[in-house]
Write a structure and sequence with these properties.
Helix content: 40-55%
Oligomer: single chain
Largest sheet: 3 strands, mixed
Domain SecA family profile: 1-126
Order of helices and strands: HEHEHEHEHHHHEHEEH
CATH architecture of the domain at 180-276: 3-Layer(aba) Sandwich
CATH class of the domain at 180-276: Alpha Beta
Organism: Vannella robusta
Protein name: SecA family profile domain-containing protein
Shape: elongated
Distance between the termini: 41 Å
Number of helices: 10
Length: 277
């Protein structure tokens, strides 16, 4: 807090997660002449009551809220800090315009709706909240689908036999194509492959490279069916006890899978992903 603030309000206190003896601060918050700066997390769930006769005679506690509540429930709780059991109190909302713009509000609308600005803010906030909840629900559905596919892949890998190669390859394609399908808004992608070329992969190396080739070919076919040219770039990173970039930013149509080769060695899963990142 600035020295100017402290000189203007000699009686002040702060209530946040680091405050000791929080209940003492809450009790003093409604005393006449006391200014309490309260962290947002205490806007709900903390019981403030006023027994100071001077404060009550002057209209009760006054709350200056400097954030827009995320929901109606939070707004009601924040307003409830002004009084308990019907006691008098008042609430003032002070918001920074740039914060509202960052939340998606339009500057023109903020000016046009000045007369009923709070109602507009609440309406848009609730709409944004509903949209975010709908997005979470849709994301949960997609995650369930991905999880089910991942469990299938895990089952096939843990009971592996050569006759399952085509099924495993299809599961991998299903998982990955979901994120590079033609329905996406992006027209081209930079696709990264992290290939385990440790010693234990020597027998399955050719199958792994074939899977990369099949993935790239399927991506090209999808572009053709969508009447567009495949302009994706491909980078392949091999990892064992060390990581090596085998090719970087190669045209997907130039058979980038032919540019990687088996090296052998120990296994360090993290080093491959760190190299890509």
């Amino acid at each position: 807090l600035s020295d100017a603030f402290k000189s203007e309000f000699p009686q002040f206190q702060v209530l946040d997660e680091t405050t000791e003896y929080k209940q003492n601060v809450i009790t003093r918050a409604t005393m006449s002449g006391m200014v309490t700066i309260i962290a947002r997390s205490f806007a709900r769930g903390s019981d403030f009551s006023c027994t100071d006769d001077v404060t009550i005679a002057r209209g009760g506690p006054h709350i200056i809220q400097v954030f827009l509540s995320n929901s109606h429930a939070e707004g009601t709780q924040a307003a409830g800090r002004t009084a308990r059991q019907g006691e008098p109190g008042s609430l003032e909302l002070v918001l920074y315009q740039d914060d509202l713009l960052n939340l998606g509000f339009e500057a023109e609308k903020l000016v046009e709706r000045e007369a009923d600005l709070y109602e507009y803010l609440v309406e848009q906030r609730d709409k944004n909240y509903s949209n975010s909840v709908a997005g979470l629900i849709e994301g949960e559905k997609n995650t369930r689908s991905d999880h089910a596919c991942t469990l299938k892949l895990h089952k096939e890998l843990t009971s592996y036999s050569p006759d399952k190669d085509s099924k495993i390859q299809q599961l991998l394609l299903d998982l990955n194509m979901k994120y590079v399908g033609s329905s996406s808004s992006a027209s081209s992608y930079h696709i990264f492959f992290c290939l385990d070329d440790s010693g234990s992969m020597s027998r399955n190396w050719s199958a792994l490279v074939s899977a990369v080739e099949a993935f790239n070919q399927r991506r090209i076919e999808m572009c053709v069916s969508a009447n567009c040219v495949a302009e994706d770039l491909v980078t392949i990173v091999n990892y064992s006890s060390s990581a090596k970039v085998m090719c970087a930013g190669v045209d997907i149509k130039a058979n980038p899978h032919t540019l990687t080769k088996f090296r052998g060695g120990g296994t360090d899963f993290g080093i491959g992903f760190c190299t890509v990142m």
